[in-house]
Structures are given as structure tokens and as C-alpha cells.
Amino acid sequence: MHDHHHGHRHDADRRSLTIALVLITAFLVAEVVAAVFAGSLALLADAGHMLTDAGALGFALFAATLAARPAQGRWTFGYKRLEILAAQANGVTLLVVALLIVFGAVRRLITPDDVRGGVVLVVALAGIAVNAAATAVLSRASRESLNVRGMVKALLIVAVPKLGP
Description:
The protein is mainly alpha-helical. The chain has helices at residues 2-38, 41-67, 81-110, 117-139, 146-156.
């Protein structure tokens, strides 16, 4: 009976992670399109942040799937090491995104672009709604899962793009 409940919890966690991943990824694509249309580096920067969130969600989903597997062979402690590698990959991705944003910001300081502020405002408000929805989905999942708890904390930090270039 306990095993059935335990397996059900993992299934529910994976379902919650999948829904959050779909929400974040769909918004990421829309935000990149809006950033190009509006000429907004702020939206592009937030899209970079959403990319790291999507990557972290994807890894959390992958780790939740692997966590159900028993320890075996060289993996005597299970698959916990993958969490460390994923965190490192997420950090490298953040660094690359930050460097691209700095490059774009310096270029815009030299030759400023026109920005469509109304589009930026609408997309920023939609971004808050999407982050809130993803957080709500994950907050209903199990509190026993380290992956789910970590993603709830990460999504609670809502990056609101600034209006302007």
C-alpha cells in the first residue's frame, strides 16, 4: 500500500513538473518573439532567465524520472550526482546569457534602439501571470521532493523586465 502511494506521489510530481515546463517554455518562445518585435533587450534578458528556468525544470523532470530507479553498478548512491552536474550546466547557461545581455547592452548604449514600451509592459504582465501559474501548479505537488521544492523557490523569484532598452 505504501509503495503504491509513493509511486503515485512521484507520478503527480512529474505531472506538475511537466505542466510547469510547458507553461514556461511556451512563454519563453512568445517572449523571444515579442522581444524582437518590440526591440527590447529587457524582454530578451528575461527570456534568457526563462531559458534557465525551463532548463532547470527539464532537469528536475529528468531527475524525478531517474529517482524512481534503484541504485545499481557504479551508481551505488543512485543518481544524486546528476543534480550537481545539472546545477553546473544551469550556472554556465546563466553566465552565457549574462554575457550576451552585457554585449547587447553595450551595443545599445552606443547606438540606442527604439523600444515599443506598450508591448514590453503587456509581455511583462503576462510573464508574471505565467510564473504565478507555474508556481501554483508546483506548490500543489509533493513537499517531499527536493526537485519540486527547489523549483517552487526558483519560480517565486519573478523577474519583471524593466521598461526600456
